[in-house]
Description:
The structure is a single chain. Helix content is 34%, strand content 6%. The protein is mostly helical. The two termini are 23 Å apart.
Amino acid sequence: xxxxxxxxxxxxxxxxxxxxxxxxxxxxxxxxxxxxxxxxxxxxxxxxxxxxxxxxxxxxxxxxxxxxxxx
Length: 71
């Protein structure tokens, strides 16, 4: 998945403000994931398969790291 396709997805109606975390929370989630050894190619979580730049934006999502979620 390219950065362009991720941005296009995040701009879709699915990502309305009531479904998404604010920019501060989103950026913190991305920072945490970028420091995680389970992040592959800066995009995918090898634990759950999520596309992190997309999943981190959604309120209903959380980190699925076994032994304790990071966010």
